[in-house]
Design goal:
With 126 residues, this protein is of the alpha+beta class. Helix content is 36%, strand content 17%.
């Protein structure tokens, strides 16, 4: 993690995505430091925009959240590059969440999808 981009609640996701793309092309994806809870949403949107924009170049970005301290009071979103993945591999799931959705329930749903074994069609070898 060479570069850290700060993201605020009023940050414009398209502009942050542009910065992510620029830094990634210059040498590697940055980490995003959301400044407050609403900024996490803006940062996640920016990663999604940058990912969609760079996929045609063969660059596949994904995001890995991590606590910055032992008190779990601050989070950093590490943007990583998965160049070994190719478009169309893996599975995509769509999860929806309302404002009233419990964060814990949403995190559990995401974790469940990540941990679910990938099932291959009958007769197909792994």
């Amino acid at each position: 993690m060479d570069r850290v981009l700060k993201v605020g609640a009023s940050s414009i996701p398209k502009k942050v995505a542009g910065s992510i793309e620029l830094v990634t092309r210059a040498g590697g994806p940055p980490a995003l430091l959301p400044l407050g809870d609403p900024a996490v949403n803006q940062a996640a949107k920016a990663v999604a925009i940058a990912r969609a924009s760079m996929v045609d170049e063969g660059v596949y970005l994904y995001c890995q959240p991590e606590y910055r301290d032992d008190k779990h009071s601050s989070v950093v979103l590490n943007v990583l590059e998965a160049s070994r993945l190719r478009k169309g591999q893996g599975q995509e799931y769509e999860l929806t969440a309302a404002k009233s959705t419990s964060i814990t329930a949403l995190a559990g749903a995401i974790a469940g999808k990540v941990r679910a074994p990938i099932r291959s069609p009958r007769g197909a070898s792994p």
